[in-house]
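Recap quiz, item 2
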Amino acid sequence: MGYKILIAVSAIAIIITLFLTNNVNEREQQRIDLATVPEISVEGMSKSEDWARYYPRQYSSWKKTKESGTIVDMLEEKPQLAVLWAGYGFAKDYNAPRGHYYALQDNINSLRTGAPKDKKTGPMPTACWTCKSPDVPRIMKQEGEMEYFTGKWAKYGHEIVNSVGCADCHSNETGKLAVNRAYLDRGLKAAGLPTFDESSHQEKRNLVCAQCHSEYYFKKTEWTDEKGNAKVAKVVTFPWANGLTAEGMEKYYDERDFVDFVNKISKTPIIKTQHPGYELFKTGIHSQKGVACADCHMPYTQEGSVKYSDHQLQNPLKTMDRSCMPCHRENEEKLAKIVKRKYERKDQLHELAMDNLAKAHLETAKAMEVGASDAELKEIRTHIRHGQWRWDYAVASHPSFFHAPEETLRLLASANEEAMQARIKLVSVLAKHGVLNYKAPDFSTKEKAQKLAGVPLQDLINAKLKFKETLEKEWHKEAVANGALNMESKKDVDLQSSYFNN
Amino acid sequence: MLSMAILLLIYMLNTAKAFSYLSAEPTACINCHVMNTQYATWQHSSHALTATCVDCHLPNDGTINKYMAKARDGWNHTVAFTFDTYEPVITISDDAAKRVQKNCIGCHKSITTTLVGNADRNHSYNDDEVQNGRKCWDCHRGVPHGKVRGLTTTPNNLGIKEVN
């Protein structure tokens, strides 16, 4: 009897469980169907227009990065820069950054990338494209990373034709956050940090930005291609082995005697800071509280009844209601005023440090002129090198000051101290050679400063304009023919630059 | 027969990710996709940095209370999801609302102590869970799930809708 009941109960249990299992599996399938993401082909991945039909809101907000299109000629704003960068590309042309929409065109238009006549001429290596386009990871996949990093900038002019877009931060297969530039993981490993895949989702929302908004240099690397030819690649490398701090990287470069350029005025071996945005951010309070880049720069946005992440990356002070106010429960206007006051404080130190560094360069030139030896100037040049690195580190990234106010002020103060040490020592070197009360020449306008730096501006502009009429047009034709470019997407990239306005 | 029933039961519990519900992991709450909107809006709010789903929605005054509430909710949710008896726009139950209210006050103690004290002293209301006759989110409406609710409001967390 008991046996029969057991069988009956088991049978009922089996029927119920089967029903439930079936139900669970059906629901799971629904979940998968809902979460299934369209796959973008590898060929189409670098063209953001190909993603637009699946992600219309993200695409149209990305396109609004076009709104941040004003050209601000930084050499006009801060003429000291031309003295500090004498002998380097940045003394020729340097504008404030604009929206992602312009990233590629600004790279092409800049006088820094010169005026190549064919694939093998021009001053810059291919590495200069690295952060400007989703075509870069496409080429790295197709041709191999080392081949990509070999040769001149003009080698890929016909291939790299789409500005920073979807495939720079997202996987074309899953749509999830992804980084296709291997040097990021190499940098993280060198610093002893988790790689991209090992990081949390929140950290990934920093790291997709970090692949470009970081300090880097081009490391000369010898390699051999498949045919056995010895080649030299210039590989984008993060100097993070001694930590993600200004002093750690300064040590890294000093240990390797690394020099970006020798200042033409003072013959000082200089390290040009690129833009350590990620590293500085990590030292600031927002990062310590667990906020990610995307929280402020890509605020969650309501459009009708739909919510999504805004892809119009811009200054969060323009979207304070969405970027700041979800955490800061106070008056928006009051918060904006606090930020403004902080900037004024920074600007004062910023100018001081730049002026003293520029004067140190010019006073060193005078010392050389009256016969000071390299041995006499060695210590002075080290002060200038370190001062300039720290000043540049503090201000070179996109509003670094906001990301880490105290760190920025500390670096500017430290830079000013190095510059003043150099200048104090210069006074005695100059006196030793009979020069008293020397006053550095005036560098208060772009023209005066560029003259001191020996920049033949008009020649550079003429050559560039010729390049734009010839080689650049060929690149476009070729790119359209091989399917890498949809000319429609380039249609309204304006051709502004500081020299077009002249 | 009995062993078959037990095996099937284990299989079912496994496919239903039953044990994940014992954790405090917010992703367990979106095993069933009905809560995707709530998950997505929470994830982008400032609460995501400090409070998970259970920090607000379950009682935090002891393990027994917590798991009793979890079991009750779990049963109700399972029945609703299995037999499709839930509404398109989900609203919080009275019991759950009381818990959330308690947790709002619990975490924001430093700024709510005076408010709660004044309410207790100067007003008389029947519902002792709801100070001043109002719940926190009667005013703080967007915290933390935003002002829009419903399945269509966070499209890319529910799979991608093609628009042509």
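The longest helix of chain B spans residues 63-82.
The interface with chain A takes residues 1-2, 4-5, 8-9, 11-12, 15-16, 31-33, 36, 40-41, 44-46, 49, 81-82, 146-148, 150, 152-156, 158-160, 162-164 of chain B (CB under 8 Å).
End of item.
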